[in-house]
Automatic annotation (TrEMBL):
Cell wall biogenesis/degradation among keywords: yes
Name of the protein in question: N-acetylmuramoyl-L-alanine amidase
A Pfam family the protein falls into: Amidase_2
Keyword field contains Cell wall biogenesis/degradation: yes
Enzyme Commission code(s) on record: 3.5.1.28
Reactions catalysed according to its record: Hydrolyzes the link between N-acetylmuramoyl residues and L-amino acid residues in certain cell-wall glycopeptides
Species this protein is from: Streptomyces gelaticus
N-acetylmuramoyl-L-alanine amidase domain ranges (all copies): 79-208
Amino acid sequence: MGTKGAPGAKSSGGAKSGHGISRRGLLIGAAVTAAGTAVLAREQLEHAWWRLPGVDKPRKPGEVDFARAQWISASSANWRKADRPDDYTVDRVVIHVTQGSYRSAVKVFQDPGHGAAAHYVVRKDGHVTQMIRELDVAFHAGNRSYNERSVGIEHEGFVDRPQDFTAAMYGASARLTAAICGRYGIPVDRKHIIGHVEVPGTDHTDPGKHWDWDRYLKLVRAAGKR
């Protein structure tokens, strides 16, 4: 077994193994593998900075990312700490509909057993509540990659009741989305502002056929120019 040659004979740096790979190649391959492992480890560390003792980023209780929002904290079981956009690029806004009242949405997002929550909830009267900081990953999209790259906005109401989507709600939500897009350089279009139904792998249908996308995007663009 192994390479052929006289017993005890020394092999040169270019001698090949039984599989036709030189020792130099093996050394280079090992170095590349080590470098790749180091890059992966660094990326994992960047995405998990908060797990290191004493490295928790400073956060002010009740601080909001959208000046017009009220802060009500979601259960910490329904999101995870991050440092977006430094560790994850934010390039999507995902539009949801609560399939219930504003109060019920806030209540379930505060329930640690629910397993999901969005960054914001917009009420029919236009009131905006923030429940998770934008720098953190909310469990709202049902897709890990989309959770990490997006901000989720819930809207009070039901998908089959167009009357729930009031002018006040559209206006407030559009101002919120315009601010988010401005912060992260997100294009205002249907590729980057999407419905929950458009997230890969989802089984949700919101915001449904009654959500007026043309109206909404016009309002977002107008709000972004102010």
